[in-house]
Amino acid sequence: MQKSNIPISNIRFFDKTPTVADLERRFSRFLRGFREQRCATEQVERIAEDGPTETFELSVNSLSTQDKIKIERRALRYVELQEAATGMQHLKTEDRNALRRLQNGATVSRVSNEHDADVLAATLHEEMPWMGPATEHIWHAMRDSVRKGRPSIKFAPLLLLGPPGIGKSHWARRLGKLLEVPTTVVEATGEPASFALIGSQRGWGSAGPGKIVETILRERCADPIIVVDEAEKAGDVNSAKGLRFSLTDGLLPLLERMTASTWQCPYYRVQFDLSWVGWVLTANSLRGLPEPLLSRCPPLELPPVSKQHLIGFARRLGEARELPDEAIAAIEEIISMCRGDMGGPSLRTVKRMIERAEIAFDRPLLH
User: Fold this and answer.
1) What pTM was estimated for this model as a whole?
2) What number of other Cβ atoms are within 10 A of residue 333's Cβ?
3) pLDDT tens digits for range 265-285
4) Residue 262 neighbours by CB under 8 Å, 6+ apart
5) Contact 276/154 with Cβ under 8 angstroms?
6) Alpha carbons 107 and 190: distance in angstroms, whole number
7) Consecutive H or E run containing 62
8) What string of DSSP letters covers 235-250?
9) 327: helix, coil or strand?
């Protein structure tokens, strides 16, 4: 993957912001120098006109009270204008320091060429073939980004619809690892309000930036993958005054590239370009998902995982964990003994079986 930096906010940074006292000294020094030069020029002109016997003196070392008032006023105005130019004049020092991580922009990752896009998609499909529709979506997006010379991969928001336990979130994490970008998961069941995702305004007891901005600042990355797990279970969240703060409502402007590119963080009150963020939503059913969300994220229906795919997944994961062949074979036998072709355990269950087998083989022998 190739890395580059892009600006993602409308804030400006200055290497050094002078204080009012510094500016007053600079302005005073300039004024004295200017008057001294003017005095010397006038004195030369008078000598030329009246002869060498004529002298002319002008005090330049002292500044009047009116001079000092003007200097102070201009110094204050200069500092105010520079503060306003940063776009952070309303923030505390600690918040400015947090945003300073974006002084040189944020990194984005892109696939070098279409061949690399093909290899990445093939790797993802080989590991999780039942996620074929989602992998194909990303594959076309990668090739399109390469052809258009984009600094990063842009893909339309994904809504993965399928039964629980087929690895929808695992697929999103694996995608982030292959693309070499951070992945952040928001659990809709435990964080149904929009605050966890987008943050909350100052004045609230738990005011702070949301997980999107936190991820961008922590990783200095403009194109993380944000996973909203079990989005259909977010439900409605209303305040005592009847205001809505549901997770899906907070998502809507972020799923549109035009509004995401000029999104304003409610906590920092600073504009961010979130159009590079990759969105992956997961759901077990469409019940509970609002129509505006479905129009922005047409669902991709995914089938249950077959026993054949589960056995292949167990072998790949077991080999990656360096489990003995007999342990992997035992897990494969358990999966094959399940009734029906689609009656195997879930992907989560297979992962737990691998983890328990790993613990068992790493456990010291008792004598």
Assistant:
1) 0.78
2) 10
3) 999 999 999 999 999 999 999
4) 271, 273
5) yes
6) 30
7) none
8) ---B-TTS-B-BHHHH
9) helix
